[in-house]
Amino acid sequence: MDMLSESWRLVSGLKWLIFKRYMLTMLLVLVTVAISLLLFGAQVMTGFTGAKAIFSLLLFFEGIIGAYIWVSAIILGVRKAINMSLDINQVKAECKSVQSGLLNIIVMYSAMATIIDLLVSLTPGHDMIVLLFHVSLYCVLFLFSLPLFIFALPLIIIRKTNVSAGLESAYRNMILYWKEIIGSYFILLAIPYFVNMIGMIFLRQVHVGLFALIALMLIVGMIWLLPMTFTLGGVLFREVYGLKSAKAA
User: Fold this and answer.
1) What is the C-alpha separation between 204 and 85, in angstroms, rounded?
2) Cα→Cα distances 3→10, 149, 233, 248, Å
């Protein structure tokens, strides 16, 4: 709770920088879907396996580009946690200096995310077993992603650690601090989920005004919650690896 409280305080100055990246990734998703629909039309939606496979390939490349967009947000979160300037040009220069290692990590993540999306799309259904299978796949991706983005990427970019050593250190610390890491993100991600769920209940009851109010609350909340996920990652990285505040230094 102390880390979440600090992450909330650190959001100031990051909101616009994060939301620019969010809008870019949303535009990227829309372009990917539009290209897929132009190429295959309804075949992607109706379950044609070949169309779904190519759609997954498009998602793979979209994931690589999208991950590059978010890498700078991760580093901005770390810089905010240790009171360094939020100079985006300096962040880009740091990322460029370790481009090969960065690409290795991003391709690894994008490949796993694409495989999971493909498995989900190829196993349609609404019964409990299929639902549990899909949820378990996304849980695996979530647990795989956390140490990758919280620890491995900052180690490679900020400390110039090689990929293998960065991954080893990231997953070792994930095992040591899994309760704190998963607990923090679970609380953070549960907030918009429950607000959205309450809004859907009101919508079903045709209380459209209340639904609109809750939707507005969710949007306003996300102005803080989305940047907060990156400041939380920065605080976790700082605490685990013993980084000192730039002002204190």
Assistant:
1) 47
2) 10, 17, 10, 19
What angle do helix axes 178-204 and 2-9 make, rounded to 10 degrees? 70
In the chain, the largest separation of any two C-alpha atoms, in whole Å, equals 59
pLDDT of residue 248: 45
Instruction: Quote the pLDDT of residue 155.
Output: 93
* CB-based burial label for 216 (10 Å; 0-12, 13-18, 19+): exposed
Q: What is the pTM of this model?
A: 0.78
* Residue corresponding to tokens 């946690």: 81
- Which residues, at least 6 apart from 84, have a Cβ–Cβ distance to it below 8 Å? 246
Radius of gyration of the chain measured on its C-alpha atoms: 19
Find tokens 């993540």 and name the residue.
109
CA distances from 242 to 81, 156, 234, 238, 247 (A): 12, 16, 12, 6, 15
Q: What is the pLDDT of residues 25-68, one digit of tens each?
A: 888 878 877 777 777 665 555 555 566 667 777 777 877 888 88
Q: Would you state the pLDDT for residue 202?
A: 58
- Helix intervals (H) in 41-177: 43-46, 49-81, 88-97, 99-121, 128-147, 153-158, 163-176
Question: How many alpha carbons fall within 13 Å on the CB side of residue 111?
Answer: 6
* Residues counted in the chain: 249
Contact 43, 110 (CB under 8 A): no
Ranges in the chain, pLDDT < 70? 40-53, 192-222, 244-249
CB 13, CB 50: distance < 8 Å:
no
